[in-house]
Amino acid sequence: MIARPPLQTRTTVAFTDAARKRLRLRRTGRPRATAGTLALVWAFAAHCAGAASLELSLADVTGPGFAARDVTVALTPADDAFAGVLRIGALELPPPTGTQGPVALQCGTLRVHRNGVSCGDGRLQGPWPEIDTSNARLSLELVTDGHVRAELTGVGVAGGQVSLTLNRRGNGALRAELRLRDLDVEQTPRAWLALLPLPDGFAVTGRLDGNVVARVGADGAVDVRATTMPQHVGFSDADGSLAAEHIGMTVDAHLHGRLDARIEFRGLVRMVRGQAYFEPVFLDFDDGPVQFEIAGHREGPDAEPVLTRLRYRDPEVLAVDGRGALTADGAGHFDVERIDAGLEGAYARYAQPFLLGTPLDTLTPRGTLQASVRWRDGGIDSLTAYLRDASITDRQERLDFDGLGAEVHWSRAGEARRSWIEWSGGGLLRMALGPSRLEFRAAGDQVSAPGRQRIPVLDGAMVIGELALTGLADGAPRLRVEAELEPISLRRLTAALEWPEMRGTLAGSLPGIAYHDRTLTTDGTLRARVFDGDITVDNLRIEGLLSPLPRLEADVTMRQLDLETLTGTFAFGQISGRVDGELLGLRLVNWQPSAFRARLYTTPGYTGRRRISQRAIDNLSSIGTGGMGGALSGGFMRFFDEFNYAEIGLSCTLRNEVCHMGGAGAANGGYYLVRGRGLPRIDVIGSADRVAWPLLLQQLASLQQLDEAVIR
Fold first, then answer.
1. CA nearest neighbour of 10 among 90, 52, 70
2. Is CB count within 10 Å lower at the N or C end of the chain?
3. Final residue of a domain: which of 530, 556, 578?
4. Which is it for the CA torsion 497, 499, 500, 505, positive or negative?
5. Inter-residue contact 262 to 298 (CB < 8 Å)
6. Are 521 and 504 in contact (CB under 8 A)?
7. What is the pLDDT of residues 60-73, one digit of tens each?
8. Beta-sheet strands, E only, within 7-159
9. Residues 633 and 597 in one domain
10. Is 40 helix (H, G, I), strand (E, B) or coil?
11. pLDDT tens-digit readout, 197-237
């Protein structure tokens, strides 16, 4: 049993009877409670039956947590009771209330009996400009054994009303209930708001109903339950990162334990209407209520609170359950045992706001995600996730997957478990991907895919020999891939990429491809087999690969490409033979060329057949004359379908959307595009040394026959 702190009083009693008799009483001691002291005095006064009036002066009354100064009581007999007024010059209470005074209590009916005193139809007055007591009523009963019963109703606060019921037993056990009805939050007394840790510039509006029930046991144990129902709530902070309007909610809180020892707490918040913005997340509770619950404890007045339970419910969107012992600084342990997410809703509400401006901000995912997370001493210790019956599309058509499923296991330390991701169909950058299953292992700061794994691409495949993802711990992941490309139809590839149709196949190797900080690079040379020749790519670099504005740099070398396949692809006109070429300093912005140095020429030492058709001559003529050339429309040359040639050459250096043209050598102020051989001999000479790049693209796209060319 904990002893109650003593109460100190200094009392003077004076009364006047019909004979104006005066009697003086002084008492100093340590009675059980204030009620006992007053009841003792008033019981003594009750024996003075002939008294016409009674005045008591209790100069000082002090106790745990309060001090009353200059206390006086004036009593007037009325039948078998008294009418009385209690006045307190200054009432000292703990912060934030502080010192209050003067305070007056007027009892319409005051009864004094052997065991105590009761006050009925009481009126309360005090220096509270923010509190209206004009309609307040108080009933009070004080018993000599320390029992106190009080009920205060009709107190006007913030445009609403507050009521208080208190019952204190003689052994010190106490029960108090506070009722709040329709309070205007903006008008709430500043001293009350001081109890909330609101930052500067934080504004709150709305109405408030609520009940608070507090119990204090004789042994000092505390139990507090509060239910509040804020309505039409709005709030905002100084910089607009937090805001809400028209919020309807309920808040349930429970606290129990000992203030000087262990205290356990629980809070449950239900948001049922309105909208809220927690930068960058926007929640519309009119679409569905949201419920948030926490529980925890504090081991002592100076100890840090410990979170032991977390529950979050956003129906059909997100459910989270967690248990453990976690402090505010992240120390301790916590297991998020359940995360259930409906991908479409969870992405739109909780993920997309953080992804705006990134390649992942235009996705439409569907399906369900289940996950669990273990937290240990400041970081994630392990994670498990399951993806079921999912699909994902991108409004910009960069990726598209159906029948998507996954099982992912990751741990900070220890042996990596097998994980996998699979899909029944999909596409990447408009290229169709066939049914696939990619297995990998994840642990620490890296993910790796062991062995060779095949992913169908169009009518070919990509065979991954190495896949490694590192740097997960420092938030700067790095991806490295080595793969081979099994033959893919160029016709299908170019159709998927919406390029001019090409013939032939594409195959090759992709060594050392790395992706880091939204930039793709290669350690070595990419090799491809296309148009029955070889193409190599060096110094490849792609910045912002999946961003709205990707940028590519590379050097491309072409050797022994089959011209018959190449020109047939573009309906350019038939040319037979082989060509070499270079595309150096290539720069693409949003996949459109902005700069390069390009050259295409007959493969040195090639001894095979070299023939060129009239259509090809006409098209080369138009390119070499800036769109002003003609074709073989007159003379006897028009009777020949094709001609022999010695060499072909074409070059373009692109700068500032202008192509600086060249060919296979100088020729009479121009340059050879085709140097003829044999009879009938034909030379095609270009005269335009500068051609606008958009115009050249238009010519290549339309492949129209133009009128003028220099032909001999």
1. 70
2. N
3. 530
4. negative
5. yes
6. no
7. 766 555 677 887 87
8. 8-16, 25-27, 53-63, 66-78, 81-92, 99-100, 103-113, 116-125, 131-132, 137-143, 148-157
9. yes
10. helix
11. 667 778 888 998 999 999 988 888 999 999 999 999 998 98
**Residue 493 in domain:** yes
Do 607 and 648 fall into the same domain?
yes
Type of residue found at 646: A
* 8 A C-beta contact, residue 617 and residue 643: yes
CA dist., res. 317 & res. 291, Å (int): 12
Full domain range(s) for residue 553: 541-711
pLDDT band at 372 (very low <50, low <70, confident <90, very high): very high
How many domains does the chain contain in total? 3
> What is the DSSP track for 558-623?
EEEEEHHHHHHHTT---B-SEEEEEEEEEEEETTEEEEEEEEEEEPTT--S--EEEHHHHHHHHHH
Q: Which residue is listed with tokens 């938030």?
A: 475
Is residue 42 exposed (0-12), middle (13-18) or buried (19+ Cβ within 10 Å)? buried
| Residues 600, 624: Cα–Cα separation, whole Å | 14
Q: Is the same domain home to 555 and 677?
A: yes
Least confident of 40-49, 226-235, 367-376, 676-685: 40-49
Residue 177 lies in a domain: no
Tokens standing for residue 533: 């020749």
Statement to judge: residues 38 and 159 lie in one domain:
yes
According to DSSP, the β-strands at 684-686 and 670-676 are antiparallel
Q: Are residues 600 and 507 in the same domain?
A: no
Which of 622, 592, 595 has the alpha carbon at shortest distance from 498?
592
For tokens 């669990």, name the residue.
372
- The set of residues, in sequence order, having a beta carbon less than 8 Å from that of 488 and lying 6+ positions away, is 457, 458, 459, 460, 505, 506, 507
CA-based diameter of the chain, in Å?
157
What's the one-letter identity of residue 437?
A: R
419 located within any domain: no
Residue in 452, 447, 456 with CA at minimum distance from that of residue 423: 456
Secondary structure (DSSP) of 462-527: EEEEEEEEE-TTTT--EEEEEEEEEEEEHHHHHHHTTPPP--SEEEEEEEEEEEETTEEEESS-EE
The answer as to whether 545 is a domain residue is yes
Read out DSSP for 403-418? EEEEEEEEESSSPPEE
**d(C-alpha 83, C-alpha 75), whole Å:** 6
C-alpha separations of 354 from 16, 53, 194, 284, 335 in Å: 80, 76, 34, 17, 24
Average pLDDT for the chain: 81
Same domain, yes or no, for 519 and 644? no
**Do 481 and 510 belong to one domain?**
yes
Q: Do 515 and 587 belong together in one domain?
A: no
Rounded CA-CA distance 550/429 in Å is 13
pLDDT class for 59, splitting at 50, 70, 90? low
DSSP states of 205-271: EEEEEEEEEEEE-TTS-EEEEEEEEEEEEEEE-TTSSEEEEEEEEEEEEEEEE-TTS-EEEEEEEEE
Q: Tell me if 614 sits within 8 A of 640, measured CB to CB.
A: yes
Residues 6+ apart with CB under 8 A from 285: 247, 248, 271, 272, 273, 274, 275, 276
Where among 475, 499, 530 does a domain terminate? 530
Calpha distance 589→591 (Å, rounded): 5
Residue 247, C-beta contacts closer than 8 angstroms, at least 6 positions apart:
206, 230, 231, 232, 233, 234, 271, 273, 274, 275, 276, 285
Query: pLDDT tens digits for 329-363?
Result: 889 999 999 999 999 999 999 999 998 877 788 89
CA atoms within 13 A on the CB side of 525: 10
pTM of the model: 0.70
